[in-house]
Amino acid sequence: MIRPQDCEILQWRSFDDEAAFFASMGRFFASARVRRECGGYPLSDGPYHRWFVLRRQGDTRILGFVSLEQHPDVVRLRDAYLRAEARGRGLFRTLRERVLGHVDQLGLACTTRAPQACARLLARLRRAFHPG
């Protein structure tokens, strides 16, 4: 069983090491399943993107991620994904809390777009998310 305490969360930027980034993340960018689960849109990356990547300690296999796009005045939560075998174990909650903690430290406004099916999940976080 995969538990949050057995995992680590890393911050990656493709601009820091593009070859290493895409060697690990490329399969997610190429996956039709990931695209469907991320609202039907392909993943995107750019100079303003930061990726919070979840994996087991000591393992290079990525279990999930959340991407942010940070501009001078706003942070956009872009994409989030967790592998099926890692779901239902509190891992996404741990990842989300780390990301929101990072956003809080920046002190910037934060926006996101989410599929309608996710609205009920975000409604539980009313203190963090407000419909716009």
TrEMBL record:
InterPro entries: Acyl_CoA_acyltransferase (IPR016181), GNAT_dom (IPR000182). It holds the Pfam family Acetyltransf_1. Gene3D superfamilies: 3.40.630.30. GO terms for molecular function: acyltransferase activity, transferring groups other than amino-acyl groups. It comes from the Bacteria. Residues 1-132 form the N-acetyltransferase domain. PROSITE patterns: GNAT. This is N-acetyltransferase domain-containing protein. The lineage of its organism: Bacteria, Pseudomonadati, Pseudomonadota, Gammaproteobacteria, Pseudomonadales.
